[in-house]
Each structure stands twice: as C-alpha cells, then as structure tokens.
Amino acid sequence: MSFIIYPAIDIRDGKCVRLVQGDYNQETIYNENPLAVAEEWEAQGGQWIHLVDLDGAKAGHPVNDKLIGEIAKSVKVPVQVGGGLRTEEDVDRLLSLGVSRVILGTAAIEDRAFVQKLLAKHGEKVAIGIDARDGLVATRGWLETSAVKAEDLAVQLAEHGAKTFIFTDISRDGMMGGPNVEAIVRLAQVSGQTVIASGGVSQTSDLQKLAAEQTNGVGGAIVGKALYTGSIQLKDALELVKQ
User: Fold this and answer.
1) CA-to-CA distance for 45 and 217, rounded, in angstroms?
2) How far apart are CA 201 and CA 58, in angstroms?
3) Does 21 score more than 90 pLDDT?
4) Residue 136 φ/ψ, nearest 5 degrees
5) What backbone phi and psi angles, to 5 degrees, belong to 200?
6) What is the pLDDT of residue 81?
7) Which pLDDT belongs to residue 234?
8) Active-site positions?
9) Which are the contacts of 152, defined by CB distance < 8 A and separation ≥ 6?
10) For strand 126-133 and strand 136-139, is the pairing parallel, antiparallel, or unpaired?
11) Which residue has the higher pLDDT, 140 or 109?
12) DSSP H helical segments within the chain, as ranges?
C-alpha cells in the first residue's frame, strides 16, 4: 500500500473555500475557479483530487455536480467526492460523470440499508466518511452529533464490505494543529481496513507521522488549508512521503 496525499477542494457557491471546523459562518474563499485549482494540484503531482460539495452537504443532495463533472473530466487523476450523497440516483449520477469514488457520510448513520446496498453494488467506489466529535459520529455537514461511536460504525460497515474510511476529528479541522494520529490508527486497527486521515494536517511532519503508520492501515491524508496558506508545498510533500 502506498501513502497517498489527497489535495482537497471544498466547493461552495461554485468557489474553492475553506471552513473552520465545518462552520459555514467562518469561510475563507481561496479561489474563484475550483477547476483551475484541480488542474494545478494535478500539475504538481497530485495522484488524487478530493472534492467536497459543501452546499450539497448542507442541502442533503448534490448541488455542484455539474462543476464536479467538469473537474472529473478535465483531470487525468481520479477524483473522490463527498457532500450530500443520500440517494442511489445521486451516487450513480456522480459516478457516471467520471467520479472514481464517492464518500457517504450522513447516510452511513441515518440509512444503513442504503449504504449496505451501495457497497454491494459499487464496492471500492464507495468510501465511508466518518466525522467524529469527541469520538461520536457527526452528521448533516457536522451540524448534528449522533450517539454512535466512530469505531463501532467502522467495524459494522467493514463487515458489509467497506474498504476505505475517511476519518475526520472535527476538533482538528482547519485549526492547523496536527491530526489525531492515535484515533486514526485505532480506527484502522479495529476495522481492519484502510483509513485516510482528514483534518489538522498543517505541516510536512504531520504527513511523515501518518505515512509512518502505513503498516497499521493508514493509507493517506487529505490536505486542505495547509496547501492554500502555503505551509505545505504539495511537490515537496509528495517527495518526502515517497522517501
């Protein structure tokens, strides 16, 4: 297994933005053109592009799917997408637009039968996004917190064929304070599957720490704000992780 860095593009109102801890009132616009950003990350050597439809996460259905389709067709690297995917039709449509992997979050808690059906239908094209607040799964664009433990959810869905989990410790997201490595490794170990780290990656040493856990099931990291502020240079990070 090779460790993959996923440059993140969060889309809101058609623009590339970042929120702080998922707060829609704490938004920074980094670029007016998400397609240009995706092409730039690819040019710098990015192996995947991670897209989040923030409008979709809030609305409960994809909102920026036309733009996402354009990005998926314009770059040669695979694209994964999360945000508001709660029906089979929406998932099928995004995959038909050229998206390589969809991320189910809220649905994993609210409609387990739906998730199991999609895992059976699409296999590894479906990843499960587990966003945790104090160890409990948050849903609906992080606006609500469930009573379900992140680790319990991962174990249950792994039994139904989930191969990839994307884990976010919400308290770390956008805070540039480093990822919760311990929780990420623990989730990989209890589920027996690959976990992609999300939230808190702020410097290349964070990526080194995560990459060192490949044998424990940590398969990559999503990097957002640090790329936009320049505290991580994608080219340098890719070289470092290779070593």
Assistant:
1) 23
2) 24
3) no
4) -105, 145
5) 95, -10
6) 98
7) 97
8) 10, 131
9) none
10) antiparallel
11) 109
12) 34-43, 54-59, 65-74, 88-96, 106-110, 112-122, 150-159, 181-191, 204-211, 225-229, 234-242
Report d(CA 209, CA 123) in Å as an integer. 29
Q: Which residues pair with 19 in a beta bridge?
A: 27
Percent of the chain with pLDDT over 70: 96
Q: Pull the structure tokens for residue 67.
A: 């733009």
**Confidence at 76, pLDDT banded by 50, 70, 90:** very high
Residue 172: CA count within 13 A, CB half-sphere = 26
CB neighbour class for 82 (10 Å; exposed up to 12, middle 13-18, buried from 19): buried
Whether residue 173 has pLDDT greater than 70: no
Quick one: which of 69, 78, 59, 75 has its CA closest to 96? 69
CA distance 130 to 3: 19
- Give the long-range contacts of residues 31-36, CB within 8 A, separation 24 or more: 34/9, 34/67, 34/71, 35/67, 35/70, 35/71, 35/74
**pLDDT above 90 (res 38):** yes
Residues counted in the chain: 243
What's the confidence (pLDDT) of residue 22?
73
198 touches 168 (CB < 8 A) = yes
pLDDT at position 112 over 80: yes
